[in-house]
Every structure is written in C-alpha cells, then in structure tokens.
Design goal:
alpha+beta, 8 helices, elongated
C-alpha cells in the first residue's frame, strides 16, 4: 500500500484549535472536509472544518456525538458551490482544476479521558465511513489538550489595564482509512503525519451561508414571502472582497414594476444586505432603478438589524420604490 499524502491548511488547524480550546473540560466534535482527485484514494487536502449545529451536537465529560441534517446539508451545499470555489486557489489554481470537494469524517477531542489514540469505537467509526457510508477516504482528527488551560491575570498600573494570558497546548493526530485498506481488510486506521500549508496555496472554502446555519428561520421567511404573493429565486455569487459566497435573492411580485434584489453575505443578518431594484425589461446598464446608497434615503428606511426579508419588502413598498 502506498503511504498517503495528507495536506492540511493552516486555517483548518487554527479553527480546530479554537474550537477545542472553547471546551477545555469537556469533549467536542466537528466535521472535516476538503479536496481530493477523482479515483485517487491516497491524497487529500483538508481545507476546512465544519462547525456543528448547537442542536445536533452533544458534549460531555467523556463522550461527544455529532450528526443530524445540518452537517450533511452544509457539505452538500459546499460541494455544489465548489465550481465557484475552485478558482479561488490563490497561487495554485491550475493544480486544483480536476479536484472534487468531499466530506472526510468527523473529528473529536479526547483530553478528558487522557487517551492519545483512537479508542476501538473511534476506529470502527472511521472504518465504517468507508465500508458503510461509501467514502473513498476517511480522515478522523483526534485532539487532546495536553497542558492545563491556566489563566494568568496581571495588572498594569502604568496603563491602567488588566493583562490576561492563557497557556494552552493542544495535540492533533490524524487517522486515515481508505478503499484500498478496506479491500485489503486492514483491521484499523493508520496514524498519518500531515503537511501543513499556507491557505494561499489552497482554494479558500468560505464559511457556510446564513441560510444553512439558520435554515429553519430562512425557510420560514421564504414561506412568509410566498404567502405575501412573492416569488423568490436564489443564486450564489463570489464576494470579490473576501472570496466568500454571497446568497442573492431575486424577489418578484405581480404588482411590482421591478425586481427587488437582496444580496446577503455569510455574516448576515448581523451586517446589512446589498439592496437593489432592477427592471429586467430594460437593457443591461439601465436596469438598476434604485440602489441602497440613494442619498435621499437613510439605511434605516429600507433595512434595520432584526428585519426579516418580508420586512425589507414592505419597507420598500411603503416608500413607493417597487
């Protein structure tokens, strides 16, 4: 068997350490995803971790579980968007031209139990990702906090401030299993040493969109629009500023002369959306009838923090903009 080559972005490492550090006295879990070449099961690049939904993860003193629809929905959405993501490969776009985005397995922490290797249950779960779930490659990280998360608080009288220092050391191990190993009936995953690369050399996988992280609320708002008589189309667009993926909603109503275009970033609803009214019947370049930067309107006239999509629609209607 050929020894696998596993790459790991620095961003994925730091995100893992931040998550584990949030739970120093209990265990936690997360999803692991990245890039493979089709039909090659001994190379993988871990680009990002997927944070669990608070409703679908349980954390305890000596056990943690993760699952549910949120993780699967996020992976499916990122896979669908990968053709948009792939060109954002920094210094090496050509290298990733024929790659695919996939879910690798689940990572978890074990420091409370004091185990520095997978348990037999962990091994079985990693192997079943291939033999039962059908993955070509399974990579299961295991994290351990190996030094006490002691906090040192000191006072700087000269600058009238408190200084807080937290010493925390975390070890991360990656366990690997693939189709070749399954065909050879190898009894357990193997421990691999990854190569950490700078994020600039890999496609920048964005955070999942707000409509996935708050899917119930999003679907409720879409139903509100439908009840109001609106038709809504959605597309995803690359944000040229931060390489994130924006969600664009094109909202129509039989009584309107234009289309309300609401473009949200992955930080929405904490940041305001981009708002435009477009007349699709006019030639390109003359279609935009209104933009949120209109000096005659204040931002609060058409959007305020906490507004639903229907609130935005009704504010535009109330001002005769549609």
């Amino acid at each position: 068997m050929i020894q696998p080559t596993i790459l790991l972005t620095r961003g994925a490492v730091l995100d893992t350490f931040r998550l584990v550090g949030e739970y120093p006295h209990i265990e936690t879990s997360w999803g692991v995803a990245g890039i493979v070449f089709p039909e090659v099961d001994n190379f993988a690049l871990i680009t990002n971790i997927i944070l669990p939904s608070s409703k679908e993860v349980s954390r305890g003193f000596s056990v943690t579980t993760i699952g549910g629809s949120h993780l699967a929905t996020c992976v499916a959405w990122l896979q669908k968007q990968y053709p948009l993501i792939r060109p954002m490969a920094g210094n090496s776009p050509a290298f990733y031209a024929n790659t695919e985005y996939m879910f690798f397995s689940k990572g978890h922490s074990h420091h409370v139990l004091g185990l520095k290797q997978q348990s037999r249950t962990d091994e079985q779960s990693t192997m079943e990702s291939v033999t039962v779930d059908g993955l070509s490659i399974a990579i299961a990280p295991l994290a351990n906090i190996v030094s006490n998360p002691d906090e040192e608080i000191s006072t700087n009288l000269f600058e009238s401030c408190l200084s807080i220092r937290r010493n925390l050391k975390i070890e991360l191990r990656l366990y690997f299993y693939n189709r070749t190993m399954a065909n050879l009936r190898m009894p357990r995953p193997i421990l691999v040493t990854p190569t950490v690369i700078d994020d600039v050399y890999a496609p920048k996988v964005p955070m999942t969109s707000w409509h996935l992280d708050s899917q119930g609320e999003y679907l409720s708002q879409i139903r509100q629009l439908a009840t109001y008589g609106c038709r809504t189309k959605t597309i995803n667009k690359v944000n040229s500023t931060n390489n994130g993926l924006n969600l664009q909603l094109m909202i129509e109503h039989p009584m309107w002369s234009g289309v309300l275009m609401i473009t949200t970033s992955d930080t929405y609803p904490n940041t305001r959306p981009d708002l435009k009214i477009v007349d699709l019947k006019k030639p390109t370049g003359l279609r935009v009838q209104y933009h949120q930067e209109n000096p005659k309107l204040k931002v609060g006239d058409v959007w305020s923090r906490g507004d639903t999509l229907l609130d935005i629609v009704m504010k535009h209607e109330a001002r005769g903009l549609l």
